Amino acid sequence: MITCFGKTVAPMGFFGAAKKQTDEHMTSYGSHISVIFQVWGSKWPTVFPYCLFNVCVMVILSFVDSHFDGKYSVDVSTQGHGFLTLVVAFLLVSRVNTGLTRYESARDSIGVMYRECRELVQNVCVFTELVQRGAHHDRSQWEDGMRVPIRMAYLLRKTICSQAGRLAEPMAISHENKLLTFAHCFEVFLITYGFMGLEVVAMDLDNPFGDDPNDFDNSALACTAYEDTYLTILDIDGDEWMNKLRFRVHGQEGDCPFPDEKTSLLSSTV
């Protein structure tokens, strides 16, 4: 898998049909063709120069071998080449698995952080209501319970784990020695694409925080916590205090600077 996960880390879907929406881009993981040839967040610009360089080297070696009738050639031991390929593939897959583990750990941590923020606000509101009992309208126990569970983080884990199989599958390498020149070039291109692509993906997974297309959309995740807090304040203290809090957080705009489908879903269900 050369394309890492999308920028917005709250997919609205399940296995094989996950979709992630940023401000201007939609990434769908329901199709292998869509993942391979997408532009936003793709690692093709980074991997393609390496593929092109190795193909050029292969073309030169093939030309020298055919033009000089095998007088000048570069031979690699079959045993050593096979052993080295096995070792590199094992180390690279292990590196990607390590990066994926760190990515999931970071995602779990940020999910816990925002969940704790919501629970802190909810606990403050609950205890404030107990202290000032009678100042607001009573709420039923069912209405309180509807605001506690947040399933975004758990749906995210399902989606990320559903993509792990793409990294675990080893790349098939042909050992046929009697192939045409373009077949060798195509093989070199695919091998470089696979090895360098996995390395670049592992580098992205190691650092999921920042402004890159494949990093966590921390601003959008924060907006979901903001909106949940606003709904809690709205139910406790009314529209006036909710607007005051919204103005203090977002300034004159008075709204989340990164609205998306998650906040709409949250507002409609809570």
TrEMBL record:
Membrane-spanning residues: 47-64, 76-93
Protein's cellular compartments: Cell membrane
InterPro entries attached to this UniProt entry: YneE/VCCN1/2-like
GO CC terms, sorted: plasma membrane
Protein's UniProt keywords contain RNA-binding: no
High-level lineage: Eukaryota, Sar, Stramenopiles, Ochrophyta, Bacillariophyta
Keyword flag ATP-binding: no
UniProtKB keywords: Cell membrane, Ion transport, Membrane, Transmembrane, Transmembrane helix, Transport
Name of the featured protein: Bestrophin homolog
Cross-referenced PANTHER family: UPF0187 PROTEIN YNEE, VOLTAGE-DEPENDENT ANION CHANNEL-FORMING PROTEIN YNEE
